[in-house]
Amino acid sequence: MGKKRKIISFFLLLLTFLLPVGSVYASSFSQPVVSAVKGVYLYDDAGLLDDDQRERLSEHLKKCGQETGCGIYAVTSSEPGGRTGDRYLEDFYDNGFDTGQIDTDAVLIYLDMENRYVNVQAYGKAQNRITDGVCDKIIDAIYDDLKAGYYYNVIEVYADEAVDYLNYVPIYLRAWVQLIAALIIGGIAVSVMAVKSGGVMTVNADTYLDSRYSGIRARRDDYIRTSVTKRKKPKPSEGGGSSGGGHVSSGGHSHSSGGRSF
Predict the structure, then answer these.
(1) Which of 130, 160, 208, 256 has the fewest CB atoms inside 10 Å of its own CB, making it the most exposed?
(2) How much is the pTM?
(3) Would you call 43 helix, strand, or coil by DSSP?
(4) Sheet holding 42-44: strands in order across?
């Protein structure tokens, strides 16, 4: 019985040490992230906007999403629950993805009013256009309004910038450029054919060759030497190309990201 009591006492003592650790871990995220709802693109948990602004921005975000085929989201919070940096927006996307309430291809902005931090992320196909560098450029475009507290302008400009980058087509792929290039190439081809059709070449090798006195006099093959050339077999390149933005959420979702304090 004495040995059994010692074992029980040991486990009770161990549990006493583990409880504070567990409570600290649980309190590290004291507040849950706002829950995503299908078809809702604006989550103003920090109360930065009035009702009219929320209604107009919600419609604008929805319209921008329809233009790009990606969800364009905006999230604000004054109580991130201990989350700093990019974690809040990652958890918001993870939870929304797991419950099917958020678009797989998505661009999101997060305003953390407690830590005065802004974060832009892109998931799915959107991260091919909205890279880490583009996230930073979007923040550049809204930063002055963000510092001044013009939050309606911040979200509106962010959405417009996201549309511009998602729908951007390089100039050499635009239809009018390709049409002009086709006309130029066609004009050159027609001009070349016109020049070539202006006359017929009548002089050839037989003009200067007298077959009576021309012919092969002798034929001889002489072995000189054998030459062997060695080439080093190229090694296959190590590693593969990047398959995402270089960031992965706790839920395993690859994404691009950019953020800074304001």
Answers:
(1) 208
(2) 0.66
(3) strand
(4) 42-44, 71-77, 106-112, 117-123, 254-261, 247-248
